[in-house]
Amino acid sequence: METESGVRTIDSKKSPRRAKRRNRPLSRLVENNLIQQVSIEKYQEKVRKVYGGPKGALLATCSKLSLHSPLGERIFRERRFDLRGCRRILDVGSGAGQIAKHLLKYADRDTEITCSDLSRQMLRRARGRLKSSRTRFVASDLTRLPFADASFDAVTCGFVLEHLPDPRPGLAEISRVLTPGGRLLLLTTEDNFSGAWTSRLWYCRTYNRAELKETCHSLGLIWQQELWYTPVHKVLRVGGICVEIVKR
Ligand SMILES: C[S@@+](CC[C@H](N)C(=O)[O-])C[C@H]1O[C@@H](n2cnc3c(N)ncnc32)[C@H](O)[C@@H]1O
Predict the structure, then answer these.
(1) For 12-247, which CATH class?
(2) 93 CA to centre of ligand 1 in angstroms
(3) How confident is the model at residue 19 (pLDDT cuts 50, 70, 90)?
(4) Which residues line ligand 1 (CB under 6 A)?
(5) Neighbours of 152 (CB within 10 A)
(6) What is the SS3 assignment for 241?
(7) Is the CB of residue 25 less than 8 Å from the CB of residue 196?
(8) What is the mean pLDDT of residues 184-211?
(9) Atom of ligand 1 nearest to the CA of 141
(10) I need a surface site. Which of 76, 95, 105, 140 has the fewest CB within 10 A?
(11) Which ligand 1 atom sits closest to the C-alpha of 68?
């Protein structure tokens, strides 16, 4: 039997995700489930439309107001995800370039940064915001990255995985383009009440932390350290899943 996130279980009734979901009726009511209802083509059409439109235009401002961007910057500034020595970094689902902006600031001066996104409109916005000759922009789907094997020392993937019905094809692609020993900073929406609201706002799914960890490990992506924006986020278990992952 397979759960929604693709983790094999012996009995779906005992799946941790389902058990958690049963205990979270309010989250289940709030959470958007478009991703499970339509084909991947139709879903991605919706994603392009949402991010290409006014909501996408406000994304960078929302990231600042919600403190995601400044708190995310601290992870790089404090070298909790250390960018030193990385020559080539890929930022998947770069959106308006919120993470890429930090990469430009905290990576070595000669590091090449590649921004990829499903939405050409978001890439145009990122290019306009970043204004840097060290960045290149590539329109592509996370599950079909147009890069050679082992082309990047590090990958950042912020709030993109929740736009996949099954995380495995996306994670496998990230693993393929990473060098052995390469590192991934993964941020994604968790299956709690605040995650459910994020899901409603952006038509995305959420992840159960333990199941996602298991899925990553099955693909040779080992969770090195779980990160939190602040100690308060850790105590309240909010802010989403944020983890440094090493490719075995
Ligand atoms: C919430 S934004 C994240 C922006 C930025 N990474 C951050 O952390 O703030 C999600 C981005 O992922 C992109 N996206 C969604 N599905 C994708 C896919 N399958 N492949 C690549 N990008 C995708 C969207 O177009 C959007 O720009």
Answers:
(1) alpha beta
(2) 4
(3) very low
(4) 47, 51, 63, 93-95, 98-99, 117-119, 122, 141-142, 158-160, 163
(5) 26
(6) strand
(7) no
(8) 96
(9) 20
(10) 105
(11) 9
